[in-house]
């Protein structure tokens, strides 16, 4: 697995920040990567700056930021003005635009059934993200199958509530886990 995201991961727990008031908790945690799942056009630059100033790598979940469009110009603006390390999205066209801007990319896929799994693999192959995030992250067998089929890092996320669930995902081949519970951000993994 030759990906810049692999080199970036120091803690295998990623702080998935879903409320602005959790930014300080993320900064004080053992996580070295933050997934920003909250914000709007006016606040996001400050959030990115605060996290990066603390030495964290920051990925903006583009689908969740209020006021952003799903156009190439929004990616260009975010890359130049906010300067995150990368983006997370479910949209292929945003993956391609972000790569053109030099951002790292994470394709988020929802695994609700076997046809969603097949579509997810096809999407990943067509747009070439740097990593994928699969949700829910509580499926070790599927995580293993995806890591065998796709040559890019996999991040497990969604519905993870316990340390053992993180360890199961990691044993199945996940590079890291994105976790919304701040108590888990302090695990030394």
From TrEMBL:
Keywords: Glycerol metabolism, RNA-binding, Transcription, Transcription regulation. InterPro entries: Aldolase_TIM (IPR013785), GlpP (IPR006699). The keyword Coiled coil does not apply. GO terms for biological process: glycerol metabolic process; regulation of DNA-templated transcription. The keyword Transcription applies. It comes from the Bacteria. SUPFAM superfamilies: GlpP-like. Pfam families: G3P_antiterm. GO terms for molecular function: RNA binding. Signal peptide: none annotated. Regulates expression of the glpD operon. In the presence of glycerol 3-phosphate (G3P) causes antitermination of transcription of glpD at the inverted repeat of the leader region to enhance its transcription. Binds and stabilizes glpD leader mRNA. This is Glycerol uptake operon antiterminator regulatory protein. It comes from Caldalkalibacillus thermarum (strain TA2.A1).
């Amino acid at each position: 697995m030759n990906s810049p995201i692999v080199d970036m991961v120091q803690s295998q727990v990623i702080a998935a920040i879903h409320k602005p008031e959790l930014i300080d908790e993320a900064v004080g945690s053992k996580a070295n990567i933050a997934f920003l799942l909250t914000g709007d056009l006016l606040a996001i630059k400050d959030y990115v700056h605060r996290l990066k100033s603390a030495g964290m790598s920051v990925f903006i979940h583009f689908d969740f930021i209020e006021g952003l469009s799903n156009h190439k110009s929004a990616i260009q603006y975010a890359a130049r003005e906010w300067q995150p390390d990368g983006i997370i999205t479910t949209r292929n066209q945003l993956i391609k635009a972000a790569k053109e801007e030099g951002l790292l990319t994470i394709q988020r896929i929802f695994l609700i059934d076997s046809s969603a799994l097949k579509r997810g693999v096809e999407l990943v192959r067509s747009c070439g993200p740097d990593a994928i995030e699969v949700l829910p992250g509580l499926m070790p067998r599927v995580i293993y199958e995806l890591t065998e089929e796709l040559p890019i890092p996999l991040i497990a996320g969604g519905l993870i509530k316990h340390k053992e669930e993180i360890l199961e995902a990691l044993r199945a081949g996940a590079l890291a886990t994105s976790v919304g519970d701040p108590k888990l951000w302090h695990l030394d993994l």
